[in-house]
């Protein structure tokens, strides 16, 4: 049996290591919910059967930062709370992403006071901003899809927590 006949009979596919790692990472994003105020109710709604975040591989909300790779900050962040949010973000392993959910998280919303942070991008790198007060659950799913597309475009060797490629040559 020749090679061509064998390939037609059994079939095969080729891919790269980067593609497999990117597919696995984008298909299993584990969110760390930071439900600080009213946006948290809409964030909880993505788990119900109508929106079903499980379709996107993110139904397991991790309440420990060491098992999360996506932080969803939902609600008004005060300066007192910002230190806690930053500490939790710092405890998350690389690579990690952030969604700023709602007007209060993105820009302080209607709270123009000395105690409210006017946008979490002052102390965290934000990947996706969600508009709304509060944003609808389907908008959060759209943000999750955007994060997954961003992860899919990232090469595995670009992640900071992988070992030095020079060490793997030996």
Structure commentary:
This protein is of the alpha/beta class and 170 residues long. 35% of the residues lie in helices and 11% in strands. It is elongated, with a radius of gyration of 20 Å.
Q: What would the keywords be for this entry?
A:
170 residues; four-stranded parallel beta sheet; 6 helices; 35% helix; 11% strand; elongated
Element layout with pairings:
Elements: H1 3-10, H2 17-26, E1 31-35, H3 39-45, E2 70-74, H4 79-91, E3 97-101, H5 103-107, E4 128-130, H6 137-153
Parallel strand pairs: 1-2, 2-3, 3-4
Helix pairs in contact: 2-6
Quick take:
This protein is α/β, with parallel strands linked by helices.
Morphology call: elongated
Mean pLDDT across residues: 82
The termini sit apart by 37 Å
Strand content: 5-15%
The amount of helix comes to 25-40%
Q: By helix and strand content, what is the structural category?
A: alpha/beta
């Amino acid at each position: 049996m020749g090679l061509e006949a064998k390939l037609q009979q059994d079939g095969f596919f080729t891919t790269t290591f980067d593609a497999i790692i990117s597919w696995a990472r984008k298909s299993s994003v584990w969110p760390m919910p930071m439900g600080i105020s009213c946006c948290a109710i809409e964030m909880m709604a993505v788990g119900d059967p109508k929106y079903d975040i499980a379709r996107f591989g993110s139904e397991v909300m991790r309440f420990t930062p060491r098992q999360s790779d996506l932080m969803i900050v939902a609600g008004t962040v005060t300066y007192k709370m910002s230190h806690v949010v930053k500490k939790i973000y710092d405890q998350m392993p690389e690579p990690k992403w952030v969604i700023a959910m709602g007007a209060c998280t993105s820009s302080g919303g209607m709270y123009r006071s000395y105690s409210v942070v006017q946008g979490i991008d002052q102390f965290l790198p934000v990947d996706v901003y969600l508009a709304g007060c509060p944003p609808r659950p389907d908008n959060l799913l759209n943000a999750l899809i955007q994060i997954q597309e961003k992860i899919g475009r990232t090469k595995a060797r670009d992640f900071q927590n992988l070992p030095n490629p020079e060490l793997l040559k030996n």
